[in-house]
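User: I'm writing a tutorial on reading structure tokens. Could you give me a worked example: one chain, its sequence, then its tokens, then a sentence or two explaining what the tokens reveal?
Assistant: Sure. Here is the example chain.
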Amino acid sequence: MSSPFGFPSPVGGVPFDSDFGPSVLFAALFASVCLLGLWRAAVKRTRTLLVIATLIFTIERTVIWALRAQQAQTPSEDFSRTLTSYWQVSFGSGYVAVFGKLLAALRPLVLAALRDAPAPFVLAPAAFARGPPAPDAYADPEASASLLRTTYPGMPGDEAKAEACAAYPAAARRSTRIARAFTALGLQSLAPVVAGIAVGYLYVDAETSARKMHVVRPLRYVVTLMCLALLLTLLEMCGWAYRMPRMRRMPLLLVGALALVLTAVPVYQLFILGNETTSLVSTAPGSDNTRAEKAAFYVFQAVPELLTSGTLMAINAKEVFGM
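And here are its predicted structure tokens:
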């Protein structure tokens, strides 16, 4: 059915016969990640909430690609409008779930770096390499203190000790504030999900209702911009954490790299959200149903989701991120 007016083209288009192969491929790849996730969740030394949450995401992605493969074998006049709505919800904002996993991976790295302050009264092992002082060296207390500082240069003075002791409560308060900031940012990721559900609910009616079409169009931009803002915030947090003196940089760089890969999804969507079509099954340019547009969808939406979730499953997150 054609609409008398243009409405926003569906993200990823609707699956045709040519989409059967790619849909089966991605369903199989996500299913492989699911199997790896099941093994990670079954083994105690690798089981974490991050693994379980990522497993749920990959199961959903396996299902959605299997449904697209099934729909690709269905005549276009019989395609499911309910599935179209579901795809717009899932592809429009579902990838923000991976953002939540990356945020959860960054949190223990930052908090561990804040807690891992060197003890102010511990001498380095190298300090004990020197020979013992003379027996009469402790007759004068001031001389004794001077001798200790000379013999063990790593030993702090009284002022340094007082400053170190005073710093611990401040560091604890800072850790609490940062932990709360992580929690607040995680809760903010629910906003694009809720808005994305609204978009999916209204989308199929936007084909015949100009009023709903005018609601869906800007709301899709809002959802995508919120997701992009969250990912850019995560990248900025990684840059800030990199400058922390006791940060474990390799795991941090991994989080930053995965966040950068996932950023391709909202950037891609910003490029296509302006496309319009007069029919969900149209193959005209801008309908998101042409071969080039479908290829872009696979490369910039499906592949980043697969790479990020697959990487989180491939590593031992409990060990790598200190969870």
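What the tokens reveal: The longest helix spans residues 210-242. The first strand starts at residue 7 and ends at 8.
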